[in-house]
Amino acid sequence: MTVSLAPRAATRRSADELRAIAERGERELRSLAPAGSDAAEASPAEVIAWVAANFGTDAAAVACSMADAALPHLVAEQLPGVDVLFLDTGYHFAETRFTRDEVGRALDVRIVDVLPDQTVAEQDAEFGEKLFSRDPALCCARRKVAPLHDALAGYEVWFTGVRREEAPTRTNTPLVQWDERNGLVKVNPVAAWTFDDLLDYAGAHQVPVNLLVTNGYPSIGCEPCTKPVAAGEDPRSGRWAGLSKTECGLHL
Ligand code: SF4
Fold it and tell me: Is residue 196 a part of any domain in this protein?
């Protein structure tokens, strides 16, 4: 395991080439159902195999919120040593930072801490304290969206853990898509999984899971913007609770 502060600088193919690969992959994987299953699309392992066949490990990155390590584990099985991007906003729970360290220790991945331009203190000095409570969209844009955009410039493909059941905004998530905003291929291997599928996989493979997940936090973001959720409630209702905001802007 290596902990790094900088993503790899891969030699990238052109946007047109990558877009064509994404469009072909989306068609192929949508029609590729696992053997013996009623599913209408490829399994997570088949999606990752498609990435391994079309991209090198150096060209791929896995985005991980450190709620659990199911996605990094799945990807590292076929792309050992892959970069795992952690958006280190400066506002994470101690349990989340602990999980990040555990993932780096337990899996064959390279953790990349993606940092905002400003520390929390520098942001407070320019915008005032607790920007997250006055303008969470601006805070997320500065501490998550822009740093991820910059980091992804070094890759051709990125993996996300987006699942369709998480929110109405995610219902139509494809397995593979062209990410116009960031200019690379975006892959969502566990789009069809439920929260229980995720926990079952993590348990079966003994991969790290954030302690908060089993203590009322099925969706984990920054500490000031994440509240526990009662059993049976919308899993993402603890994110920016009481505000109209439901997404940090990474997956729009
Ligand atoms: Fe800021 Fe909250 Fe967004 Fe974190 S989740 S970047 S604290 S607004």
Answer: yes
Whole-number average pLDDT of the chain: 90
User: What pLDDT does 34 receive?
Assistant: 56
Q: Tell whether ligand 1 has an atom less than 6 A from the beta carbon of residue 51.
A: no
Structure tokens of 189? Answer: 């291997």
Residue 96 belongs to domain with CATH number? 3.40.50.620
Range of the domain at 159: 15-225
Tokens describing residue 117: 């331009």
The per-residue pLDDT for range 127-164, each reduced to its tens digit, is: 999 999 999 999 999 999 999 999 999 999 999 999 99
**Total tally of structural domains belonging to the chain:** 1
DSSP states along 8-73: --PPPPPHHHHHHHHHHHHHHHHT-PPTT---SS--HHHHHHHHHHHS-GGGEEEE--SSBSHHHH
Locate the ligand 1 atom nearest the alpha carbon of residue 239 and give its number.
Answer: 5
CB-ligand 1 contact for 239 (6 Å cutoff): no
Report the predicted TM-score, pTM, of the whole model to 2 decimal places.
0.90
Residue 99 lies in a domain: yes
Would 10 be classed as within a structural domain? no
User: Phi/psi of residue 173, each to 5°?
Assistant: -60, 120
- Written as one string, the DSSP assignment of 180-196 is TTTTEEEE-TTTT--HH
Beta-ladder partners of 68: 209
Does any domain span residue 49?
yes
Share of the chain residues as helix, strand and coil, in percent rounded to the nearest 5: 45, 15, 45
